[in-house]
From TrEMBL:
GO terms for molecular function: ATP binding; ATP hydrolysis activity. It comes from the Bacteria. It comes from Thermodesulfatator atlanticus. The keyword Lipid biosynthesis does not apply. This is MinD/ParA family protein. Residues 2-155 form the AAA domain.
Length: 253
C-alpha cells in the first residue's frame, strides 16, 4: 500500500503531518516514510537525523535502495532524500524507472509506504502521486491553498486518471475544516464529476511549531496537544478507510 501526502501550495504542513501520521500508525503497521522531495530533504532535518546514504547515492551512484533506509528511532523507517541536489528535483525517466522498481520492492517489506511529496504540479510531485494507491491532499483555510489543492486534483484527475483522493484540512478547527472541505468537494463535484473523501482536520497548534524547532515530533513530545490528538484520530480513521477500501476505482488511462 502506498499513500502520498501532497498539496497544491507549499508550506501547508505535509512533512509535519507525514512524520506524525507515521508515528501514529507505526505501532500497528510497518511504515516506511519516503522523503519525496528528492532534491530538498525535509524529513531527516525535521527528525535531526544525518543519514549517510540517501536517494542521491541510489540514483546517481548505484547504491542499493535498501542501503539508504534508516530507522527513524520512532518505530518507523525512512528513505531519506538528498539536500540541494538539483538533478534530483526533476528526475529523468531512467531515474524514475529505477526508483519505481526500488519502491515496489520495498513495498513488499512494509504495510505502508508514505510519500512526503513536494508541493504543486511539477513532474516529480505528479509522479509520486500517480504511483500511490491513495492521494492525501493537505490544504489550509487560506484561499490560495484551497485553489491550489483544486488545481492539483484537477490535473491528477483529468490528465492522469487519479480519483482516490483523501482531503485533510490543516491549521483548521473541525468546523472550519468541514466548511472548507464542503466547498472544495462542491467544486470538484461540479467540474470534475466525482466526490472526494474527507479525512478530517488538524488544528493550528503552537506545540506543533515548537516541535519543528526542537526537531522532535509532536507525538513524541506532547501526545496530549490538540494537534497530536487530532492526528491520532485521523490515523485511526485512515486505518479504517484503508481496510474498507471503499474508494471509487481509479479510471484507467
Ligand atoms: N497544525 C499546525 N499548527 C501550527 N503550525 C503548523 C501546523 N502545520 C504546519 N505548521 C507550520 O507550517 C510550517 C510548514 O510545515 P511543513 O510540515 O514543513 O509543511 P510542508 O511540508 O507542506 O512544506 C511549519 O514550520 C509549521 O510552523
Ligand atoms: Mg515538506
Amino acid at each position: 500500500m502506498m499513500i502520498s501526502i501532497t498539496s497544491g501550495k507549499g508550506g501547508v504542513g505535509k512533512t509535519s503531518l507525514a512524520i506524525n501520521l507515521a508515528l501514529a500508525l507505526a505501532p500497528s503497521l510497518r511504515v516506511l516514510l519516503v522523503d519525496g522531495d528528492l532534491g530538498l530533504a525535509n524529513v531527516d532535518v525535521m527528525l535531526s537525523l544525518a543519514p549517510p546514504v540517501t536517494v542521491k547515492h541510489v540514483l546517481l551512484e548505484g547504491r542499493a535502495i535498501k542501503e539508504a533506509v534508516v530507522a527513524s528511532g520512532y518505530g518507523f523507517d525512512i528513505l531519506p532524500a538528498a539536500s540541494g541536489v538539483a538533478e534530483l528535483a526533476q528526475p529523468d525517466s531512467e531515474m524514475k524507472g529505477q526508483l519505481e522498481l526500488g519502491l515496489k520492492a520495498l513495498a513488499r517489506e512494509y504495510d505502508l509506504l508514505l510519500y512526503d511529496t513536494g508541493a504543486g504540479i511539477n513532474p516529480a510531485v505528479l509522479w509520486f502521486n500517480c504511483l500511490s494507491d491513495y492521494i492525501l491532499v493537505v490544504f489550509t483555510p487560506e484561499p490560495t491553498s484551497i485553489t491550489d489543492a483544486y488545481a492539483l486534483i484537477k490535473v491528477l484527475f483529468r490528465d492522469y486518471g487519479q480519483r482516490n483522493f483523501l482531503l485533510l484540512a490543516n491549521q483548521a478547527d473541525e468546523k472550519e475544516g468541514e466548511q472548507y472541505f464542503a466547498h472544495l468537494a462542491r467544486v470538484i463535484n461540479r467540474y470534475l464529476g466525482f466526490t472526494p473523501q474527507y479525512l478530517g482536520a488538524v488544528p493550528k497548534d503552537f506545540e506543533l511549531e515548537k516541535s519543528i524547532r526542537l526537531q522532535r515530533p509532536l507525538l513524541v513530545r506532547q501526545k496530549e496537544a490538540r494537534a497530536a490528538q487530532a492526528i491520532t484520530r485521523l490515523a485511526e480513521r485512515l486505518k479504517i478507510q484503508l481496510a474498507l477500501k471503499d474508494f471509487p476505482q481509479a479510471a484507467l488511462s
